[in-house]
Amino acid sequence: MKPLTRTFTPDNHKGGKENMEFIIAYTTEQVREGHMTGPYSRERVQDILGSHFRSSPLAVVEKNSHEPGKLRLIQNCSYEDEFRTSVNSMIMAEDFPTRWGTAAEVAEIIASAPPGTQMATLNVDAAFRRIPIHPAHKPYLVIQQRPGEFFIDHVCPFGVRSGPGLQGAPMDAVVDLLDTRGWGPNKKWVDDLTNFRVPTSALEDGTGWRYDHLIEDIFALGERIGLPWHKTKWRDHDPKGEYLGFAWDIPRKEVSLPERKRLKYLARVDNVLATADGGAKRVPFGMAQKLSGTLSHCTFIYPRGRTYLTGLYTFLASYVNEHALRYPPKSVISDLGWWRSILSLPSEHRVLEKRGEVRNLDLWVDASTDWGIGIVIGQSWDAWRWAMERELWNKMGRDIGWAEMIAIELLLRRLVEEGLENAAVLVRSDNKGVIKAFRRGCSRNWQVNLSIRRTELLCMEKNLDLQPVYVNTKENRADPVSRGIPDARLCRFKSKFDLPEEVAPFLTHA
Questions:
Q1: Does 402 or 61 have the greater pLDDT score?
Q2: Whole-model pTM?
Q3: Other C-beta atoms within 10 Å of 211: how many?
Q4: What are the structural domains, with CATH classification, of the chain?
Q5: Which among 266, 267, 306, 333 is positioned nearest to 462, based on CA atoms?
């Protein structure tokens, strides 16, 4: 963390100011539980911590669609000062690795599940608020309630970039413990666990199945290892369940949006359409970005929706900064009309199909800032050169990480062009940051996020699972290709697909 040379205490967000009673009740409870101390004056906090400190604006949001009306306090640790520095900008999420149980992995489990398979869901109680803060980091996570009224936090807040990894690491161990016992398979997303169980045999009268574990066994294991499962946020084993915001039907091998989610997302589309007023009014970047994330999530259920997101992605890429407003083109308004129509249908679902074992097709990708992007498939290669000088493309989030993600995206487009579908494949890259961002499904760089979303959408449409793995640059067969000096022993192929509109101005086929 960067040393603090001054104290920075911005005002809370509007939602925080409007819900001050909730914030006061929350801090009172946290002080009672020993998670916070205070309230203190600014001078007293500096005296206790022995240094300058900074607070992040508080926001109050609804918890989730399971608990309408229930609120959650969030510290906006991504809030930047005038020097464009935030608490989260000082933290590298890559330093806090964890595994992510994706929807694609759950889909594969269900698509391959034998009759009688069931799923249960559990949640760790107050997961983040059980992780202690290192004393040296407490000056970065002070809470400002009312102006001049501060609390020192002693446990991890909701909103800090390292939080998912800090909580995810012990949950990874829990998954390993369950899998080792044969109580699985298991998938988790931070503090949410989905436990599957497969029948060991059928009952003699044919009315049901025998299993080797119950949800009570998982609760008992939690007691033994000190893992506090939430007492009410759990669902017993059943042929149907929810995970990652999707409703899964194991016997029918289908997935859909829960009804409350469908209505929530429909309202979000309606809100943007009303704001845009047919394209006559400007839309804030944050609103457009939030909608793109929502609809990208929905494409897991509606794969054909990918076609109706390309325009929105291009529109997002046209914003000059994250505080700008822009008029959406008529094509985006039309695409959102399609989304409104499909989200108005309550019975839409997606049938799950097996991808099979992970295949090694000898796939390699790389990018260089000076020359371009290269991909290698077996004994053949393809490449794209930068269409302009580095200082012209390397801005507005388009950096080497973005280029490395574009390399993965272009490889996928080539594989789809060759007819690949219903498969899981290894991809080798020498960029650890991009590999981890792709596995998580998000990056702090919004341009990288757009490429991840385009890639995920195409994967969903073709039921593909790309599994990037790290290789050293010296071993990366695509490295010389990305520098314009391909191995003479390789054959050249030339892909015929069109580059995405957001990428096309910056690359030309070599």
A1: 402
A2: 0.76
A3: 17
A4: 14-92+133-153 (no CATH), 103-126+163-255 (3.30.70.270), 259-351 (no CATH), 358-509 (3.30.420.10)
A5: 306
